[in-house]
Amino acid sequence: MQYVGNVEHIGIARTTDPHFSAECKVLLESIEMVLELRFGSAGLSLMPEIRQIRFLHILRSVHSALRTVETVEDVRRIYATASTPVAANNGNDLMALFNTYFEEEAYGEFEDLTKAVDWSTRQPDEMLDVIQLALYLGMPRLAIDMAQEAGKLFPDHEKAQKSAHILAPPVVRGMSPARPRGLRESSDWIDKHARQFKGQWVAARRGEFVAAAPTFKELESMIKREPDQDSILVSKVL
Amino acid sequence: MKQFTEVFFSHQFAVAMATYTDHISAEKRFPGIVLRLSLEMRPNPIRAIVDTGSQWCIFDPAFIDSSIIESVPDNMFVERCVIRGTIYTGKIVRMNVRIETDYGESPDIDATVFVPLLEPGEEWPHPNFIGLEGFLNRIRFAVDPAENAFYFGPV
Across the interface, do A140 and B56 touch by the CB < 8 Å criterion? Predict the structure, then answer.
C-alpha cells in the first residue's frame, strides 16, 4: 500500500461505533460461514480467536484471504501477522496501519506502534504525520515525546525542528520580581460590575474602570494611549 | 504576606504567590481559580482559569498576536479540543506566558498553548484556560483556599 503523504489527505473522520459494529458483524458471519465450508470444524475452531480481533482492516484481510489460503494455519498466520506492529514497520503499509488505529481510536495500539517503529529508518514527514495524528487523538504527551525524538533524528529537517520547538516541555526563560500593579483589585472590580457589562470587553486599572466596548478591537483602540499599559487588566465579561 | 508564604519559599517549593478570584463570569458560571497572566507581545494582562483537566493552555485568539499563529505552517500542529461540549479546531503554538504574582518572582515561561481558529466574526465564548500539558505539568503548585493564594514555582 502506498504511503499517504500528508495528514490532510488522511482526513480526520473516524469510524463511528454503529457502522464499525455492523461491518464487523457482517464480516464475522461471512468468515465463519466460509471457514466451515472450506475447513469444517477445524475452521470453526478459529472463530473464538477471530472474534477477539478489534480491527476492521484485519478482519477484511482474513475475509479476502479465505478464498486462496490452503490451510487453517494459513488463516491464523494472516491475523497473527497483521496484529504485529513490527511487521508493519518492516513493510510499506506502516502509515495505513497508523491511519487504521487512528480511525478506530485504538489509543493503546497507536502508541505501541509508535514505540515499535525504528523512526531513524523512516522519512521525517512520516513521523510528523504521526505526531499530527497523535494530536488529533488527544494524546499530547505522546506527540511531545515524538516531536523531541524527531528533533534529534532529523537535525536538518526544518519542520522536524519546528515540531521539536513547538512541542517542547515548558521552559522558564527568566524571572521578574512581582510589582504591585493592582491587578487583583482590577479583577475584583470587573467581578463586582460583571452584570452591568455582561457580554462586553472591559478594561480596569488599579481597581478602577478604564473603558468598555462590545469587541476587543474597539476596546484595544480605546485604551492604547492610556499610560501604564501593563497595569490595565483586560477581560471579556462572560 | 500569606500564611504559607514563608514555609513554601524557605523550602524552595515555590518562588511566587498569586492571589486568585473564585469565578470569571457575571453569573458565576465558571467557578475556579482565576489568575492574571501576561502573554507575549500583548501589553495588557488578562484573566485565565486554572483547569488541570484541560490538555493545553487555551487562549482567546483575540489575545494572540497574529505573527505567533502565522509562524506555524497551516498544515502543522492542528489540534481539536472538546471545550465545554463543543469541538474546536485550533493551532498549537509556542509563546511566552507569565503568571502575574503578588509576591515573589514571576517566571516567564516558554509554553505550548492551543489557540482556537474561529470563523470571521465569531467570538470565543469561553474563558482562557491554564491547562496541564505544556504548562502546569512543569510547575510545582499549591493552593490555599483559605486565603485564595496560589503558590507556584518551576520544577
Answer: yes
